[in-house]
Structures are given as C-alpha cells and as structure tokens.
C-alpha cells in the first residue's frame, strides 16, 4: 500500500503557475469492494531566480512632467509560486523617484516609478537607477535591471484615456480576429504631438501578447490566439497610448477580459469492471461495474441533460382579460393605439401566437386592424366623438399547436372629445333674411328680461359650456347679458331720451382649448303704442329708396293710371271682404291687449331636442278707426329642419312669442 515516487518531480513543469499543484489517483480494494480517491500535492521550493526580460531599460521623461506621474517598469518573472514567487521590488536611492509596488488580480507583483521631485533638464540630463526584484525564499533570490532615464523637452500635453479601466467578455471559442474592446485616448496637442499610437505596456506578460493583438492606430483589441476558459478565466491587460512628439507623452489604461465558458468538452465516462464474467446466479443488486462521469466545462455546460418533448396543453394567456383604450378624436389614420400582450408556456410551434380581430360588428373591420404577429391594434380612419363615442371588439389569440388553443380578449375603444365645434346660434337664427326684432316697453325697470340668445355646442362636457358676453351695443349702459344663460336684461330703467332702436352683438364662447366662438346679433325696439311699432316696421324698408327716382315714378304713374285704377278698385273690394272676415275672427279670439316679453327657457334640453326659438313672431291688431290703414304685420316663420317640433313649441310655449294689440276707442262691429 505504499505510494512511491518513480521519477524526479518538477512542479513548474507539471503545473506551471497553477497553485496548488496536485496529482490525483484512485485505488480499488477488493473483498470487500471499496473505491478510494487520493491526491498528492506537489509543494514548491525556491529553486528559481526572478528574471527580467532584459538587463537594461530606457525611459524618456519630459522635464515638464508634474510630480506624482507614474511610469510602469518591466516586470520580472519567477516560475515559483506562493512565498517563493516574486514578492517585491527595490529601487536604488535617488532624489527624484520612488518605487510603488502594485499587485495584480492573480497576486503577481509589478512596479511603477513615481516622480516625487520634478526634473530639470538644464540641471541633470539623465539619471541611472537600479531596480531589484526579490522573491520570498529563505534566503531570497533576486534579479537586477539597469534603468536609464533621459530627461528631454517634449509635449505640453500627454494623451488621456476616456476611462482608466475597460471591461469586456469573450467566449472561449471566439474566432481569431474578433473584436474584444476598443480603447480611446485623446491628446490636446496638434500635429505629430497629437497623433496617438496604442501599444501594450512594457510589463504585459508574453502570454497575453500571444493571445491578443492591439491595432496601434485604432486602439482595437482583438483575439489573436486560442482562448481556453479551463486554463484562464480572466485576463488583465495593460495598454498605453503614446503620441508622436519628440518626447512622447504616455497614458496608461487597463482592460479586464473575462473568458466565458462554452460547452467544448464532452463528458468522460470511466468504467471500472469488478466482476467479469458475472455468475448466472448473481443476486439482484450485485455490483457489476463502477461508472464515473466528469466534464471539464462549468455550470450548466457540465450537466447531463434529459430533453422532455412538449405537447400543446396550455392555451395562450393574456396579461389582462379586457382593455380600455382612450383615443382623441380627429386622430391621424394608421396610428397604433394598443398592444395586446399574451404568453404561452409551451415550446416551439405550440407557443407561436397569432392575433385575429373577430368581426362581430362589420364596421369594426373598416376602422380597426390588428397585426397578426405581435398583436398591435391600429386605427385605420379618423374618429369623430360627435359621430360615435365607443367601439367594442374581441381579439382572439391562438397558438400554432394541433389542435390549436385560443383565448379571447375584449377591447373597448372610447373616443374622447376635442373642442372642434364652435357654439351654434339657434335664436336669433343667423342664416335668414328675415329680421327678428324684440320689443321692450318704455320705462321698463332695471332687471327686466327682454329676450334670450339660445345656442348649442356639439362638443361634450367642458368643451360645450357656453358663456355669453355683450360685445357691442348701441347703448352699452342699457342692456346686459347673463354669462351662462344668454338672457338679455335691462341694466337700468329705460328713459324717454333713449334711442328707439338698439342692436346688440353677443359673443358666444365655449370653454375648450383652444376657445372657439361665434356671435349673434339681436335687434331690440323700444315701443309702447302700435303707431311706434308701425314706424319701426317702416324703417325696415329695402335699402333702395324709391325717392331717388321720383320723376321716373311720376311719369310711369301717369302712363299706367288708367290700368291701375281698375286694378285698384278690384283690390279694394277683395281687401274689404278679407278685413271683414279677419275682424270677426279677431273679435272672437281676443278681447284684451297685452304686451308680453319672451320668458326664459326652463330646460336647456328643450333647445338640444330641437325646440328652436327662431320661430318667435309678432302680431299687430288695429281697429278700423285707426289713423293709418288697417295692417296685419305677421313675421314669417323661418324654415327649420326640426319639423313638427316647431309646431309643438308654438302650441305649448306661449311665452315664446309676442303679441302687440293697438288700443281701440270702441270694439269693431261684425260688419266692420
């Protein structure tokens, strides 16, 4: 059972820099069957001296370099490990430089010269220093290198890296020439003093230079050799940037390259047979062989995997059962408004989802469209809140299994209102040639309601809230308008010296953003007796005054007098007959004269429903002994698209019209 050394052991040859260094073995013991694993650790002795790459090193340092500047020195290599490896550096005594010993990630040491006192080329043109490398053996082994420093005048600005440390990761099977990292430095100098050359720092190990290549012009670090995760997992690469000045300025940076493991090692199976041949009467459970499986890869790359095939046993599942989408009206066609999201835990084709818009409402297919692959819902046309406020649809999400499984998701699209409609004036009607004149009696007190401007806004909510403002008036001090009602009141008591005719311009504004507005013109006559009203009506004559051509009309009258006499007599007869019938009807229907003003609207919904106040009218009744000819002045109704609802308003709202009846000294007889 003794384990013997069969030949001389060289730890550096067997393991190199790997520590600890061990050799594994297995021992099988029979009767009873037992398996033992063992390892022999090869301990290091200090049998190697540190070695510098060269016996001399030369540095060029500008006299303008400030104190604190660092200059990396070539590192010594010692194949021993542990305490026997390179432990420290020493620098010969001098007034300008100190030595700073740094430790890499892998524990190795490297030295940097640190300038403590600025150099003066006129005082000393060159310096000679000795760098000593020591290991930790007992006694320690050492190596020396001569450092020659030339003090010269050079650039005022040295290159500067945009970061001191770069990090990158590459797979161990990365092909040669693959870009690992791109370092970048800048130099504020011009010309050659600002041109930068990239290179490896002097203390970069030779192994790193074999595996990586650096482009001196672009600073691109690329793979040069074959990387192996099982050999080295992390590389610490030191690079420098040097300009092309007479005395080059130098900057240094570090690149950490992590090697990512790939499954490039097949499992190794070791079979150790114990019983061979196996007896035919061997009992169940008898050990036949020992199996050992190993894989040099790491993590999941080192497992033995068993694949389970998938069946389509899961329906697609949406993140939510229904969606509510709000879209502003007057949208741009073709915009996406929703992304229906769904998942399927199955694999492969069983998890391949497709989205379909079910055509429950035929209009939905003309307005909306869905991307079959990603579930994005698009709006094909521009929507109008006043046309339709809500759309409902169903999106079906189906997988690619056989048979396929599906899930339905309901989508509701709400069209939100924009202020795209200005207030519309219903009374007084803006698009008619007829003149609506409201009448107010002289001496009416302040606060007396004369009439009302009625308007509607097709928008909704705050956008349809209308405010009324008196924009222009014949006498601004006489009338006022309700801010939200549109009712026109007397602001003070009417006086005798007030004008008989007044024209008001009312400004109507909604409360949307931006504000939309319209205007309404209201004519008000101050009158108490029928004679005054007739005078007002006479004032509303055509703009073409017949007196401008008095001579022409007189000549024409002489020529046509004979024919006109006959026609006039016939017309008088017909007119007298008509007046007799009308007087009889008026006598039966009205026995008193009243002056009424239009009352306020009690329900604004009546206006929205079509009860349009433009059908206000005036009737004037005179007796046969009036000083002027008998006259029935009835304002014509304005045609309205609301049809029968106008007659409903006339019959059911007596406050919506005016009656002016002249004072009679006596009642007319039926004959009259």
UniProtKB/TrEMBL annotation:
<dbReference type="GO" id="GO:0005509">
    <property type="term" value="F:calcium ion binding"/>
</dbReference>
<dbReference type="InterPro" id="IPR050174">
    <property type="entry name" value="Protocadherin/Cadherin-CA"/>
</dbReference>
<feature type="domain" description="Cadherin">
    <location>
        <begin position="432"/>
        <end position="544"/>
    </location>
</feature>
<dbReference type="GO" id="GO:0005886">
    <property type="term" value="C:plasma membrane"/>
</dbReference>
<keyword id="KW-0732">Signal</keyword>
<dbReference type="InterPro" id="IPR013164">
    <property type="entry name" value="Cadherin_N"/>
</dbReference>
<dbReference type="Pfam" id="PF16492">
    <property type="entry name" value="Cadherin_C_2"/>
</dbReference>
<keyword id="KW-0106">Calcium</keyword>
<keyword id="KW-1003">Cell membrane</keyword>
<dbReference type="Pfam" id="PF08266">
    <property type="entry name" value="Cadherin_2"/>
</dbReference>
<keyword id="KW-0812">Transmembrane</keyword>
<dbReference type="Pfam" id="PF00028">
    <property type="entry name" value="Cadherin"/>
</dbReference>
<feature type="domain" description="Cadherin">
    <location>
        <begin position="319"/>
        <end position="425"/>
    </location>
</feature>
<dbReference type="InterPro" id="IPR015919">
    <property type="entry name" value="Cadherin-like_sf"/>
</dbReference>
<feature type="transmembrane region" description="Helical">
    <location>
        <begin position="552"/>
        <end position="575"/>
    </location>
</feature>
<keyword id="KW-0325">Glycoprotein</keyword>
<dbReference type="InterPro" id="IPR032455">
    <property type="entry name" value="Cadherin_C"/>
</dbReference>
<feature type="domain" description="Cadherin">
    <location>
        <begin position="162"/>
        <end position="269"/>
    </location>
</feature>
<keyword id="KW-0472">Membrane</keyword>
<dbReference type="InterPro" id="IPR002126">
    <property type="entry name" value="Cadherin-like_dom"/>
</dbReference>
<dbReference type="GO" id="GO:0007156">
    <property type="term" value="P:homophilic cell adhesion via plasma membrane adhesion molecules"/>
</dbReference>
<feature type="domain" description="Cadherin">
    <location>
        <begin position="53"/>
        <end position="161"/>
    </location>
</feature>
<keyword id="KW-0677">Repeat</keyword>
<dbReference type="InterPro" id="IPR020894">
    <property type="entry name" value="Cadherin_CS"/>
</dbReference>
<keyword id="KW-0130">Cell adhesion</keyword>
<protein>
    <submittedName>
        <fullName>PCDGK protein</fullName>
    </submittedName>
</protein>
<keyword id="KW-1133">Transmembrane helix</keyword>
């Amino acid at each position: 059972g003794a384990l013997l050394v069969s030949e001389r052991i060289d730890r550096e040859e067997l393991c190199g820099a790997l520590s600890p260094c061990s050799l594994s073995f297995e021992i099988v013991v029979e009767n009873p069957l037992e398996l033992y694993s063992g390892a022999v650790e090869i301990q290091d002795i200090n049998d190697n001296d540190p070695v510098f790459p060269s016996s001399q090193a030369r540095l060029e340092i500008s006299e303008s370099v400030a104190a604190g500047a660092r200059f990396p020195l070539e590192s010594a290599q010692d194949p021993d490990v542990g305490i026997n490896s390179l432990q420290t550096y020493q620098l010969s005594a001098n007034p300008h430089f100190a030595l700073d010993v740094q430790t890499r990630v892998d524990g190795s040491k490297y030295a940097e010269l640190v300038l403590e006192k600025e150099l003066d080329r006129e005082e000393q043109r060159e310096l000679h220093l000795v760098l000593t490398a020591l290991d930790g053996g007992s006694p320690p082994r050492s190596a020396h290198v001569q450092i020659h420093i030339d003090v010269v005048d050079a650039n005022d600005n040295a290159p500067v890296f945009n970061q001191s440390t770069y990090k990158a990761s590459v797979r161990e099977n990365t092909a040669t020439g693959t870009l690992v990292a791109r370092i970048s430095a800048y130099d504020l100098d011009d010309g050659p003093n600002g041109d930068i050359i990239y290179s490896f720092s002097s203390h970069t190990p030779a192994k790193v230079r074999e595996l990586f290549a650096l482009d001196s012009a672009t600073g691109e670090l690329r793979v040069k050799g074959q990387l192996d995760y099982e050999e080295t997992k992390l590389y610490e690469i030191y690079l420098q940037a040097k300009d092309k000045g007479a005395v080059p300025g130098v900057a240094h940076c570090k690149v950490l390259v992590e090697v990512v493991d790939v499954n490039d090692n097949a499992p190794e199976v070791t079979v150790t047979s114990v019983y061979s041949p196996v007896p035919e009467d061997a009992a169940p459970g008898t050990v036949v062989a020992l199996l050992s499986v190993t894989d040099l890869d790491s993590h999941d790359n080192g497992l033995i995997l068993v694949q389970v095939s998938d069946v389509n046993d899961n329906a697609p599942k949406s993140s939510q059962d229904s969606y509510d989408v709000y879209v502003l009206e007057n949208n741009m066609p073709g915009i996406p408004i929703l992304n229906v999201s769904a998942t399927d835990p199955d694999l492969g084709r069983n998890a391949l989802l497709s989205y379909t818009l079910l055509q429950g409402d035929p209009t939905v297919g003309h307005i909306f469209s869905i991307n079959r692959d990603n579930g994005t819902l698009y709006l094909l046309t521009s929507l109008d809140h006043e046309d339709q406020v809500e759309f409902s649809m169903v999106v079906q999400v189906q997988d690619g299994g056989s048979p396929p499984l599906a899930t339905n998701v309901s989508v509701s699209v709400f069209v939100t209102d924009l202020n795209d409609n200005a207030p519309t004036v219903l009374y007084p009607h803006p698009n008619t040639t007829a003149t609506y004149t409201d009448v107010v009696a002289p001496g009416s007190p302040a606060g007396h309601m004369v009439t009302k401007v009625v308007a509607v806004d097709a928008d909704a909510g705050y956008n349809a809230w209308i405010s009324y403002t008196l924009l222009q008036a014949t006498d601004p001090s006489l009338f006022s308008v309700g801010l939200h009602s549109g009712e026109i009141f007397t602001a003070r008591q009417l006086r005798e010296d007030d004008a008989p005719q007044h024209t008001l311009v009312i400004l109507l504004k909604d409360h949307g953003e931006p504000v939309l507005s319209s205007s309404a013109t209201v004519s008000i006559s101050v009158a108490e007796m029928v004679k005054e009203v007739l005078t007002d009506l006479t004032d509303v004559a055509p703009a073409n005054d017949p007196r401008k051509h008095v001579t022409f009309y007189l000549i024409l009258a002489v020529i046509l007098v004979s024919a006109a006499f006959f026609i006039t007599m016939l017309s008088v007869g017909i007119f007298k007959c008509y007046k007799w019938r009308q007087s009889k009807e008026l006598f039966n229907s009205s026995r008193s004269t009243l002056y009424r003003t239009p009352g306020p609207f009690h329900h604004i919904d009546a206006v929205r429903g079509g009860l349009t106040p433009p059908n206000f009218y005036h009737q004037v009744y005179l007796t046969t002994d009036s000083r002027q000819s008998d006259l029935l002045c009835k304002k014509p109704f304005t045609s309205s698209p609301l049809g029968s609802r106008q007659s409903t308003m006339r019959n059911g709202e007596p406050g919506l019209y005016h009656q002016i009846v002249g004072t009679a000294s006596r009642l007319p007889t039926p004959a009259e």
